[in-house]
Fold this protein.
Amino acid sequence: MAGTMDILIREMTIQDYGGILRLWKEIKGFGIRSVDDSREGIERFLKRNPMTSVVAVQNGRIIGDVLCGHDGRQGSFYHVCVHPDYRKHGVGSKMVHFAMKALKKEGISKITLIAFKSNEVGNVFWKEIGWTERDDVNYYEAVLNEENSTEFVM
């Protein structure tokens, strides 16, 4: 890995999809949804949130991403990923701050995310950069599309 100085942090576009999908498939335990994470699903997400999602690029290769959006009231982070070879070099923090700045520009004051309890790397990261783990809420979901199955990378 070359130094992190030559890593570009920028807004994500749909042209990044191939590189993002390659990254996701390189991360053990990562869950890829058949509908939401398809090219069409990501394109729909980016049209709704054109300025808040982020990629980290080195030498033309996507090495990190933050899928980030908001509903006008609260921001959400999805799929915050850094390739294992680039972790512990500030890439994740830089992407998170880029996305937070973009949300703030859009008038968003709060961001939430879900980190699976089994995601030790992710949970350590969020605590290290000062995020607060909440134990006062329950997380619920209702599945509207049974075809949107999740495949986990092994």
User: Anything to note?
Assistant: The longest strand covers residues 61-70. Helices lie at 17-25, 39-48, 91-105, 120-128.
